[in-house]
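Recall that a protein's primary structure is simply its ordered list of amino acids. Everything else, from secondary elements to tertiary packing, is in principle encoded there. The following example makes that idea concrete.
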Amino acid sequence: MNEKTFTINPQEARQIYAGASDKVKSLLEKKAGKDFFSSKVTDRIKTYEDACVELGEKPINEDELLQAGFTKDEITYRKLKTITKALNEGREFDIYDSDVRRWYPWFECNDSPSGFAFYDSNCGRSTADAGSGSRLCYKSEELANYSGKQFLDLWREFIQ
């Protein structure tokens, strides 16, 4: 038997899956996993690499960036921007639109053994005295909570 291998991007695979028969869906799930085809973004994005796949981007090469003089927090910021964009499913915020609610994870540093923990989500309008920008904000409290918990280590690297 002459076997061929086909490569399709994640977006195409999800489009095929959406209109496929149960048999084709089962085959695709065996190859990529059921979560990959979930309609819920928090099922699909569990890692930075998942966010890259979601957006069709190549993951950054940390070693190259470190050699170029970037610091760890700068690299982590870039990862968080990618994750945020993927979780927001591409939605970007206009920092000058004060009518749009933006949610962001809130963290607490304390004297406990962990020292750094997800605390809550907050929503703020972007004004001169607001504690939030627009690049790492989320379109819902659920997504901000998820990001704060799921990516706690990245947030810690970025903030500390």
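The two ends are 57 Å apart (CA to CA). DSSP finds eight helices and two strands in the chain.
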